[in-house]
Predict the structure.
Amino acid sequence: MKYNEVVQKLKDIVYRWENIQEACNLIILAAVLWDSSDIHIEPLSSYVRLRYRLDWELTEILEYQNFLHSWIVARFKIMSDLKIDESRIPQDWRLSTTIEWKSLDLRVSTLPTVHGEKIVMRIVDKSKKIPKLHELGIEWKNWELIKKAISLPNGIILTSWPTGSWKSTTLYSALTDLNKIWVNIMTLEDPVENQIDGINQSQVKPDIWYTFAYGLRTALRQDPDIIMVWEMRDKETVDIAIEASLTWHLVLSTIHTNNASETITRMINMWVQPFLIPASVNIIIAQRLVRKLCPYCKKQVKISELWKTVVEDIKNAIQITDKKELMSRVWNELKNPIFYEPVWCEHCNWLWYKWRVWLYEVLEITPGVKEMILAWRSAYNINNQAVKDWMISLEQDWIMKALNWLTSLEEVYRVAKSQKW
Ligand SMILES: [Zn+2]
């Protein structure tokens, strides 16, 4: 069934107040077909609304009357093994199910609100394939840096991630590339989102003291070659990761920052000695997720309103691409640039954008950057030095993606504004 048909069927059922069981299945099915990450069912004062999250935006799918809600809540609670008669306190559970041959993991959470219980379900589609690194659309220079860093026997590869940038994708893709018969790969994750055969994935449990730091120490006794630590939140974890990299291990991890250079100052703020950073860190990757234009319906636009504000950035961006074809196209069209904007069609479920494309900024520890780190300079200074040393900044990467007609200028501008680059 197609998404539109499922939603229509769901609306019919809800408006006729029949077959709650099927309605609940359709709520999940429609969300999966729509590629959404979360389902929100929230009782308001006069109705209940169903919303889906695609990337970072919630979209309302339908409304239904309040009196139906208790049945729907009860059905989801039965499916997720939650207590039906308990509606005063929050509950959460994991639910594994198969819908239309897709095996899904749902993290179901309920919360009592003033108008009734709100349900949020996070969808993890286990049948979704992890993209290979080369499928992530990484530009040539960034690609070389990442390829080089993951081929080294030791060092740290960090990714920084603001919420919503799907931080795990790049690391998982790197791990699938690294997954070879002759290496021992271990991961410490919270939660384990995708399972990869051949990799020893472990779920940390901080409530029983199985923390990232403790896990990392233990992992080192398991003769690893490559370790992925989900997140470096505290000094202890960072210290052990540095120690591991200096004793001949490749360590992959993430730090919650806005860009690559901030990651360095964050480490220094965690009291990591600056000299240890260039000694252990190979590269720092910052990433953003933007929506890709639907190839079936995207429409050419000659001049974008944003054009005037970004023309300078574009001039900077094309200086660093070695794609001759793109260069000559850009130079020819600089006076009369062509971009694309979204339309809508049945292929993209009338959503204009359907697929996603990642923007990257890869900071290499060049001699100049190293000097900045040792001198305790600010993230701003480190960033400027890195750009001087030919780092492709997030801004430049997005303009290149727009010039390659993968996304629209407006889309990236919107993300840039909402996430403070
Ligand atoms: Zn379309």
Observations:
- The pocket of zinc ion is lined by residues 294, 296-297, 344-345, 347-348 (CB under 6 Å).
